[in-house]
Amino acid sequence: MALRTAGSVLVVFLWSVTVVLGQDGWSVTYTTQSICTLKGSTVDLFCSYTYPRGKVTTTFWFTEWGTGVEPEDLVQNPEYAGRLEYHGDKKKDCTLKITDLRERDSATYKFRLLTDQEGGKYSGSPGVTLSVTGLQVKVTGGHQYKTLTCITTCTLTDNPTYIWYKNGQHLDESTSPQYKYSVSNDYDASYSCAVKGHEDLHSPAVCVQGQSCNRVTYTKRRICVLKGSTVDISCTVGYYSTTSSFWFRSDKSTPEDLTTDPGYAGRVEYTGTYRGPFTLRITDLKEEDSAEYRFTFKTDNFDWGHSFPGTTLSVTGNTTLYDTTVNHIELQDKYMN
To answer: Mean pLDDT over all residues of the chain?
Structure first.
């Protein structure tokens, strides 16, 4: 199984017993029966098959099968629109790739093939059980001593390495999901965790004490707008007093204030007080403005880190996807592909 995310690749080798169930020359082989992976990542369901005779006419994957009806090809399910890639063929390989995983994708996936022979239909059981989970930081302990644990709803494959962040800055790495240092006195600090190789899929930042601490929350994570229009990208900061702040593109080698970038000259405006919310307005949008935008700030005590994902902006000239009476709209995830 190979897991991938944009900008990072994590390859996981699974040593598992191959599952082959078949009869009279029919068989479907799944490399592994159970996979637990992160929301937002990509998964390959490796699979191969054999059949006794004839020519394969149809191949597809499915998750549900009602009584007396043919199972539904996942390609026809709008929940998976733009997120499925069938890497198999009509001879032996039946590998399926699913991108931008969501928790509701958790299910048992099975492969089905049809041939041109009478009765030439076969489905491979038991299939592959896919569990999709997000990361969360759990804070436990009393008022004096606190413990942080990076938790998931299923056990991630291949014993991952956990990465810890404090106030957006890389802090520590460990194979244990529990943070090993004391955090009891960090009243203003926020903590987040991620899995190595998937740093852009970190958990939401949590406060050690109460709900008020240093963290940046973006109003929208994805925005798609028309070329030539105007867009507002906003965030809030869970800190009562910032001394300076700016927006930047994440694809720059070092954070660069957009107001000083010649490519945005006369097209960028910042709004918001020191208490926020903070808004980046870009006018006369160009397709090359498509990028991920992040916010950073300083206080008297620290600089907010640059590690966390911000808002991804896509600028397009394809007017068929838009209602041009509005300034900008956020599209469903399927259009982001």
So the answer is: 83
